[in-house]
Amino acid sequence: MSARQGVLASYDYVDAAVEAIEKLRGEGFEEITAFSPFPEHHIERALGYGASPVRLFTLVGGLTGAATGFAFTVFTSLDWPLVTGGKPILSMPAYVVIAFEMTILFGVLATVIGVFWNMRVPDPRRDIVYDPEFSAGRFGVYVTAPADRVASARKILESSGPARLEDDPTGESHG
Within 10 A of 6 (CB to CB), how many other CB atoms are there? Predict the structure, then answer.
């Protein structure tokens, strides 16, 4: 028997799933996975998720793109100095368009990378406890715990009125 075990509860309503998650977190359970048929902010809040870090990826990508755009245009102008109409070699207003385009390009690429990074995609592990009902309208809560605390987790999940409750003797979902 594994040192860690899991319990999976399936709920008909989001409020029951949120209540179960809040009770589990209140009792100190940290390895909780929630399944939902659609993005639900109440579940995210109950799990303790803060603001998405993807915005930092976008900001860093955008700033890197702007710096790259200006650096690229300045380097090209200095590498091939062509005086046109007696104007200076470096003309910043003409570089703004390139810098803006590079800002958008790098920002978008960094955002896509940030989304995949935070989603942990690709994830070679498969979800062992996934139930197809979670894509068809039910909400799921899966918790892993040491073998001596599984009974406590099961009792908490039962108190929220699950439609179905299953034990996972391997507890492999959380690695």
Answer: 24
